[in-house]
Amino acid sequence: MRIDGVTSTPVPLGAAVPSLVRWGLTSDADLVFRTLVTFGPRTERTLAVELGLPGRRTAEALAELRESGAAVSTDDSRTTTRIWTARRPAAVVTMLRSRRLRLVDAPTRAQAHHGVVRALKTAGVAASLPVGTLPGLPGTFADDLRYLPSRELTRVRVAEVLGGPIREVLTMSNEQVIDAASARAGAPLDMDMHQRGVHMRLLAMPPADGDPLDISGHLINGTTFQRRESPAVPLKLILVDRRLALFPADPQDLERGYVEAGGAVARALTSLFDRHWTDAATAPQPSVAPIVLSDRERSLITLLAAGHTDHTAAQRLRISARSVTGIMRHLMDRLGVENRFQLGLALGSLRVVAPPSLTSDPSHDHDPES
Amino acid sequence: MPKIILSDRERELVALLAQGHTDVSAAEQLGISARSVTNILRSLMDRLGVDNRFQLGLALGFLRKANVPGPSVGSDG
């Protein structure tokens, strides 16, 4: 069957279909898409009946699928006779992925990098630093400036510096995709520094595909390791103890090595880092989506927040303990969390409810880290 | 008034649990025993004047001590 150039090829029953929810579609749209993929083309009405989905929700799901290009319909004038067909899941995922891509292209990155170098030159900090070309010869080419002419030499130098008795490493990364090789090379070093109590700060671009899963997940965002995101990271940069800086000699080709700088250049780049770090902090932090609770959910949450157990809360609300579990399970699904601790965190940070032990006096929140 | 300045250890543990770790996997990650995890949380609950994990989450969330990785995090803005 062919509609609008889309051939319907039903997948075998029970075959895995990627979730569209991950790419920002609603779960209704995902369900309808799954049904179309698995059972073949159908009308809106058939879908609604088969899925037991109210007509309005079915229509909205289909509209969403059409808008995102995941499904097409015949163009009958009457909506009831239109037949809907899903596109191939793989093609849909590719489409949705590229739709969410927020790639910064290489020339833009290079421009930002050259901008920083030019500023260092005009400020008189590094008159001999070349802009747009490489330093002539490997090795020291000016006071406090040294050219490491290959990526491999840089790697060796970085390992040597970071393996030494250092206290702090500041890193800026303008890469949105971390290649496996650098991740493999970096992880053990990071872990080692973490063990030694070296303070690490990483300022990175948001991941290219908008996937919120943290790729630097081998370290916990905590006290000695902190990661912040900024959409405008000007250059790739490593700063050690605020006295040594390493940045690519050619932002468009990392194979051409790095420049190692000390003295005034390192100080200038450190203050650049500090500025960007502070800006990234004041940007709105990622938070949980707002949620509207039903009356029943709100009463239950209020009781549990006050210290009721599931059992006593159920008695109070005249519902079964099983219903309490169900309501909580449903809330956890809506907020995308897996346990009660996380649910508490989410509801607490949304200011839905606070445990009675906490006064609403905000002056108690003195922690300098937060 | 609850004491709300977390120690490094507490902060790391809370960050792990917020990511969905279990007590056991968080303990492994931190190189401590599951019993220590329980004790750290117990002392936190005492300090915050709460009785269970849900309330502990609420309190920490309310005080903005941790972020939950929810589906909306980093949403297209």
From TrEMBL, chain A:
InterPro entries according to UniProt? Sig_transdc_resp-reg_C-effctor, Tscrpt_reg_LuxR_C, WH-like_DNA-bd_sf
Q: Which GO terms describe its molecular function?
A: DNA binding
Q: Which Pfam families match?
A: GerE
The record's Gene Ontology biological-process terms are:
regulation of DNA-templated transcription
Which CDD domains does the UniProt entry name for this protein?
Answer: LuxR_C_like
Query: Out of the domains of life, which is the source?
Result: Bacteria
What protein am I looking at? Regulatory LuxR family protein
Species of origin reads Pseudosporangium ferrugineum
TrEMBL record, chain B:
Which Pfam families does the UniProt entry name for this protein?
Answer: GerE (PF00196)
What domain of life is recorded for the organism?
Bacteria
**GO annotation, biological process:** regulation of DNA-templated transcription
One GO MF term: DNA binding
Keywords, sorted A to Z: DNA-binding
Report domain HTH luxR-type positions: 1-64
Q: Does the keyword DNA-binding apply?
A: yes
The protein in question is named Regulatory LuxR family protein
